[in-house]
Automatic annotation (TrEMBL):
It comes from the Bacteria. Residues 1-19 form the signal peptide. PROSITE patterns: SBP_BACTERIAL_3. The keyword Signal applies. The gene is artJ. This is Arginine ABC transporter substrate-binding protein. It comes from Rouxiella chamberiensis.
């Protein structure tokens, strides 16, 4: 086998088929239940299970690395990775830089704070609200709520820590992630309604690949359709969002 590969290399035969067998994913794994690092230091979550199911379908080996959210798209463009799965909203702005698979999850965003402290969004006027750097939440706050002070964090958990010890007044994030925090923190609760404004929060979550990587994009969309069809998607959805 080794000889054959060497022969192929010497003959200048492209090995792209075998190179495509490894797909390097990156994520920011501080965003349960989409992605988080477990007590064994393994990256886990709905996104990881979904990507692995798709990789099985594509007969590819997938690797996952954990890095800051705002570095994900740059890493993709610089070819350090091949794909991003990170609870990432498919937005018009991001589509100028990367391509996305079909949506795999209907997303929305919501604020949360100490229970009973703020009756509605208007009550957050002049308050400090934590958001993660590079997210749609950050952009939405900057553009639509200049009366609120956006406090940027690299990790969402640090924002929640600061909320708990009173350094900030609220945190803004994706609904499923907020629900996960609320489960563990009964003295926190949501403020206002879910926000789905498509011009900010896009048309669902997608996996990002480089714009010129149409081959991988096609394979991923096929694999996604397949795991939806054979019940795998449904099982993962139940496992991570309905327990
Ligand atoms: N859905 C938001 C966005 O696309 C936030 C995603 C943050 N994800 C993460 N893994 N930290 O901007």
């Amino acid at each position: 086998m080794k000889k054959l590969i060497i022969a192929a290399v010497l003959a200048g035969v492209s090995l792209s088929a075998s190179a495509a067998d490894t797909i390097r994913f990156a994520t920011e794994a501080g965003y349960a239940p989409f992605e988080f690092v477990d007590s064994n230091n393994q990256i886990q979550g709905f996104d990881i299970d979904l990507a692995n199911a798709m990789c099985k379908e594509m007969q590819a080996t997938c690797t996952f690395t954990n890095q800051s959210f705002d570095s994900l798209i740059p890493s993709l463009k610089f070819r350090r990775i091949d794909a991003v799965i990170s609870g990432m909203d498919i937005t018009a702005e991001r589509l100028k830089q990367v391509a996305f698979t079909n949506a795999y999850y209907d997303n929305s965003a919501i604020f949360f704070a100490q229970k009973g402290k703020f009756a509605d969004l208007a009550a957050l006027k002049g308050k400090r609200v934590g958001i993660q750097n590079g997210t749609t939440h950050q952009k939405f706050l900057m553009d639509k709520h200049s009366e609120i002070t956006a406090v940027p964090y690299d990790s969402y958990q640090n924002a929640v820590l600061d909320l708990k010890n009173g350094r900030i007044d609220a945190v803004f994030g994706d609904t499923a992630v907020v629900q996960e925090f609320l489960k563990k923190n009964p003295n926190l609760s949501t403020v206002g309604d879910k926000i789905t404004d498509q011009s900010y929060f896009g048309s669902g979550l997608g996996i990002a690949v480089r714009q010129n990587n149409t081959e991988l994009l096609g394979k991923m969309n096929d694999a996604l359709a397949k795991v939806r069809q054979d019940g795998t998607y449904k099982a993962l959805y139940t496992k991570w969002f309905q327990q």
